[in-house]
Amino acid sequence: MREPDLARLLLEAHRSLADEWVASMEERGYPGVRSGHAVIALTIDRRTGTRLTDLAERARMTKQGMMLLVDDLESRGFVRRVADPEDARAKIVRLTTRGRTYVAESRRVLQAVEGRARRGLGDRRYEQVRDALEWLAGEEEDEEE
Amino acid sequence: MREPDLARLLLEAHRSLADEWVASMEERGYPGVRSGHAVIALTIDRRTGTRLTDLAERARMTKQGMMLLVDDLESRGFVRRVADPEDARAKIVRLTTRGRTYVAESRRVLQAVEGRARRGLGDRRYEQVRDALEWLAGEEEDEEE
DNA sequence: TGAGTTCGTCAATCTGATTGACGAACTCAG
DNA sequence: CTGAGTTCGTCAATCAGATTGACGAACTCA
Questions:
Q1: Between B121 and which of A14, B40, B58, B126 could a Cys-Cys bridge form, CB atoms 3.0 to 4.6 Å apart?
Q2: How confident is residue B144, by pLDDT bands cut at 50, 70 and 90?
Q3: Per-residue flag: B87 CB under 7 A of strand C
Q4: pTM for this structure?
Q5: Do A108 and B108 form a contact (C-beta atoms < 8 A)?
Q6: Are A73 and A40 a contacting pair, CB within 8 Å?
């Protein structure tokens, strides 16, 4: 067996892609991009907005963690928190016009980065890697019992 | 193309493996294990010790970051900093007896975790994934020019 | 109506990693 | 031998990401 550093490799590969995304976004005129923004760009409902709790759930992180991300996005003018007419406790995180542009650009760049990876690896290997990663990410996490 | 969330998958797979390692170490009676300890276990010279700067370089992190890890390991009695006879500026991070046991156990568990992944994926796919990850981790990082 | 739950928030904490500064020690050209 | 520049480990400050705990306000439903 080679050095048992699969975990490290996974982390480095992650960083490589995340850094590439951030750098590419900054080149396109979006300073202050954070890697966490990507999850929101991928999961927020672009027309109606999404509740914070739902965003957190989709991103598999805590509400508190998501709140910090939303705070950041809000301070940059990309989202607004509006009251949920159906539940006075809840607030809906809704994209502003600038936010819609930002999200569209984010997704484009995300696709571009991933497209490069796909071309580099070849379609078949790319798919195999994805399957393997899904398996790795999924197994073991429900082993408490 | 599927959702362009390869980066997220990589991170989740990393966390899954890292958590498994930590949990397994704790089960074996090593509380307070940190994921960062693994790099040291894999790269430190187990007989003669290694200078902090070299450890940092091997782990591809800053000296300061490595220092925090070494501080932690030292406070747990797994390493000692001893003067380098060849360079009065330098200190050698050397394993204590307990440290040697800890490192041996770390490596065993690391192998076990990785072995499970390998069996789950099958040898061929495992190797393909490793190659793909190396490529992903390596490309692009020298794109500043 | 009241017990229990959910929503967003605040506060504190932790881990990982960074940059900047700095004294002490080393290297080497002149 | 000297002094300029570099390297080693450290301290300090900061930042990003994420967590747990607590809490008021609002909702649900027996």
A1: B126
A2: very low
A3: yes
A4: 0.89
A5: no
A6: yes
